[in-house]
Amino acid sequence: VELSCIIKSTVTPDPRIEWKKIRNGETSYVFFDNKMQGDFATRAEILSRTSLVIKNATRMDTATYRCEVAAPSDTKTIDEINIQLTVQ
Predict the structure, then answer these.
(1) Does the model's pTM come out above 0.85?
(2) Where is the Ig-like domain (predicted)?
(3) What domains, with CATH codes, occur in the chain?
């Protein structure tokens, strides 16, 4: 499964990108501090700096995934997108 977080433009040279998983009201980190967290460390990766790829997705991966981008040098310093993933 590939979830994309597309950054249209930024003047910040290296914006901070984080991915979070929200399931049953609980939020956990997927990608934080430039590395995968928890069980995602062995089965997920970041492509092109912004897309999250989850390998061997299971129903336990069904959740809302939030991509947060922080670009301190830009007019809009922080933005986010929520993507609902349902694994059948």
Answers:
(1) yes
(2) 1-79
(3) 2-6+14-85 (2.60.40.10)
